[in-house]
Specification:
Distance between the termini: 23 Å
Number of helices: 6
Helix content: 10-25%
Mean pLDDT: 93
Bound molecules: uracil
Shape: globular
Low-confidence stretches: none
Largest sheet: 9 strands, mixed
Structural class: alpha+beta
Radius of gyration: 20 Å
Strand content: 25-35%
């Protein structure tokens, strides 16, 4: 057990002095209950500690951001195709992919050793936004934007949550989803008569792909993990 203000300062939330005020203001919860005493103790490995509702990553949490190239499958083992884990060094090959990207889809893929974090990120309940750039046939117009915003029904009758479609140019659009159905962007675009030719995921929650090269990876910083946590 450690002092709450110490746990939070080591996680980089704020300075010890700022944390005393943050804790006294009731903004910190331990296992769901507000704790207003900066000297109160908690177990960072076992307790769920949150600041303003954002859950702190447990010590030892590793999150890797991989720029997945086309041609790799999001799976831990595959008889035919190379898996995304083959792009990581041996010490990271036990990490679990957070959701999946299709074999042909490129871009941001997170992998982690923290099952609770993984669940929060993929649960539709938390509605974590995921951004994609799509190169496609045709040209997205106002009616397509409205159809995405209204919550589209796919060709097989599945209903999607409201999503954002932003035309970026001829045959080029940005799509933001808050769920992850099978081949969802491709199916939504196809349902609007705009089959996707190339798809790149560019962000998930607060984490952006940035200028990481295809096939390259990096570990998220403590600060990035903290911002992902809620
Ligand atoms: N939507 C898709 O169609 N494919 C992906 O890989 C991700 C979202």
């Amino acid at each position: 057990m450690e002092r709450l203000d110490r746990i939070l300062s080591e996680a980089g939330v704020a300075s010890r002095r700022q944390l005393r005020d943050i804790i006294r203001a009731g903004r910190v919860t331990v296992n769901g209950a507000a704790v207003r005493d900066p000297g109160a103790k908690a177990d960072p490995a076992a307790d769920e500690i949150a600041v303003d509702g954002t859950v702190l990553a447990r010590p030892g949490t590793v999150v890797v951001l991989l720029h997945k190239p086309a041609g790799y499958v999001t799976s831990t083992d595959d008889p035919r195709d190379p898996t995304v884990l083959a792009l990581l060094p041996p010490e990271h090959r036990g990490l679990l992919p957070v959701g999946r990207l299709d074999k042909a889809t490129e871009g941001l893929l997170l992998l982690t050793n923290d099952g609770a974090l993984l669940h929060r990120l993929i649960s539709p309940r938390h509605r974590v936004p995921k951004g994609y750039e799509a190169w496609h046939e045709g040209q997205a117009g106002p009616e397509d934007v409205a159809a995405f915003a209204a919550g589209m029904t796919l060709r097989n009758g599945e209903v999607c949550l409201p999503a954002e479609l932003e035309p970026l140019g001829p045959g080029h659009s940005r799509v933001v989803l808050r769920e992850g159905k099978y081949h969802q962007v491709r199916r939504m675009m196809a349902a609007r008569g705009m089959p996707v030719k190339r798809l790149v995921r560019t962000f998930e929650g607060p984490v952006v792909l940035g200028d990481l090269a295809p096939g390259a990876w990096r570990r998220l910083t403590e600060e990035e993990i903290r911002r992902l946590g809620g």
